[in-house]
Amino acid sequence: MSLVSPFLDVSAMGDYAYDWALVDVETSGLIARRDRVLSVAVITVGPDGEQTGEFSTLLNPGCDPGPVEVHGLTVERLQGAPTFDQVAGRIGAMLQDRVLVAHNAQFDYDFLAYEFARARMWLPVSQRLCTLALNRQVDPPTDDMKLGTLAAHYNVPQQRAHDALDDTRVLAGVLRASLREAARLDLPLPLVTCPPRAESQFTPKPPKTPCAYRNPGRLTPGGPLQQGMKVAITGETAYARAELVGRAVAAGLNMMTSVSRHTSALVTNEPAADSTKARRALAEGVPVVDEQTFLRLLADVRPGTAHEATAVRGAPVTESEAEQVGPVEPVSTTTSAVPAPEASALPTASPCVPVPSPRPSQLLADTLDKPLAGRRVLVLGGVHADAAAARIRVVQLGGSAAINLSASVTDVVLLPGGEGDRRMRRITALELPVHDLHWLASPTAMDHNAVVLRPQEPHVMPRGGVIDLPMPNGGPAPEWYVTAGWAPQSDCEIDVVAFLLDEDEQVTFDEDFIFYGAPESPAGTARLLTGGPAEQTIALDLASLPPATRKIVVAAAIDGAATFGTVGAIQICAAAGSSGAPLARATLDAATTERTMLLVEIYRRGPLWRLRAVGQGYDHGLDALARGYGVDIAD
């Protein structure tokens, strides 16, 4: 097999020529730290596009093979196959000094990393390339980004889906075509450095059991404790801290590792201590009790109110209920001087009865009435405020604002200074229409018959827009993927994070903070995925979240001296499944000085989950943002 084709001049590939190791694994489940690899295939390809090696094998995992109806690998077929540690050396030799390539590469990388660790070996991969992330940058006109769909689009034959070796051969063809498109558009490859970085400052404590009760509020003077109260402990105690926490949890209290305005009480024998918790309790007016008083109150904890499980899986939902849009006030991006999100009044959905959103055919008709219907516009140049205003105008005119050059871009708006953008050379070669700012005042409408809309065109959301996530078969989709993308940066890193919040908009425990140092919640219901240096995704299993989780906030933070005024816009896409068609898309701009930005909120609304595009920025960093949501971070 060769990556060479009549349409691909390998000698001119330059930045796209690497030693590749194309990989596919079939697994017993979806969680790498728990499930096992059942089969693996590796194809190596040189910088000239010629195949240099191939290996595939079934594996005996020593456990239940999981969804046989998906991969067809029964216990009987796997009997007699080698274990992973018996082939790890050969696989490692093929991966050594090569870029690992896979479709949804973090999945394959994570499973291989755990298998190598079980074999007491190190996965010899320093870079990986995800063809799913690469095609999200290319943005071909396909219904979704599944491997089979892309194979059909790129005319790559596929014989046996979910067969590791055949999938790897298909992957080779998809990679060839994707590299050709990336070269045509002059796109940088979304290479990810491996292993991912981590930082001890944010490392969470050991997990705890979520509290089953709602927070009833603060402890009143002389009053009793009530189940669900949030209690923190600071300073030296006569009893072991673990024993105090264990007794409190058994009584139904919600033991916290930090203090916020939602804390019911702080337990300390040194109320004048200069600890972070004591200072915060004093500032917020949180009641303080000593250890003996706390032990006495523990003997008579009053019953609390249990969390309601509102995400009903079996409730029938009509088509008009599956997607609803309520009126929402626009979100201000005025910088807040308070270094905590809890001090900011974020927009809330209107309490009025939700108005059913237009059905797909109606959305199409409404969109076609606007002059930029079906067009994707890239804005180049200008100061940040002018570029942000131009992108807002594009959306108002029915178009979609792009942040990078892709195959779906139909027009370019050039602001002052934009002619020096490195992408202009490629834009000129592609003969894309280039306009000045005045074009947005009265753009020429396209012939409706010439508008090329995908069968599942994403809903373009303005800042503050709200949409209900569809509930097929009466329940949420297994996983929702919220992907954030931005223009590649050379002088800073951008981190996408998520906070799983209770009714007080606080994390229940530190593991509810999902970030690069802790990219997965203990139950695997929330995960951070890295598709490249300019793309990160939060994957959410909404159906499996505990009832205490009322809202998920997805945010972005800049690691470095840069601000969102220099980084530019962040594009958000929400899709059901890792390679599903985007349901919604939003392009969000913060103000000039802000270093963190709330991107989206996903929150419960009766039996449904709603997604709101936020776009609220703050001047402070990730540590202050996390503290505001109750994460315990060392000073």
Describe this structure in words.
The protein is α/β, with parallel strands linked by helices and 635 residues long. Helices cover 22% and strands 23% of the residues. The chain has 15 helices and 28 strands. The chain has a six-stranded mixed β-sheet, with helices on both faces. A six-stranded mixed β-sheet has the order 17-26-25-19-23-22. Strand 7, helix 8 and strand 8 form a beta-alpha-beta unit. The protein is globular and about 75 Å long. 43% of the residues are buried.
Overview in brief:
By secondary structure, the chain is of the alpha/beta class. The chain contains 15 helices and 28 strands.
The computed structural class is alpha/beta
Helical segment tally?
15
Q: What sort of overall outline do the alpha carbons produce when their principal axes are compared?
A: globular
Task: Extract low-pLDDT stretches.
Answer: 4-11, 198-206, 311-365
Strand order of the largest sheet: 3-2-1-4-5-6
Rg, alpha carbons: 26 Å
Largest sheet: 6 strands, mixed
**How far is the first residue's CA from the last residue's CA?**
56 Å
Tally the beta strands. 28
Query: What's the overall average pLDDT, rounded?
Result: 83
Strand content: 15-25%
Could you estimate the helical fraction of the residues in percent?
10-25%
List the quaternary state of the chains: single chain
Short key terms for the protein model shown above:
635 residues; 23% strand; 22% helix; 28 strands; single chain; alpha/beta
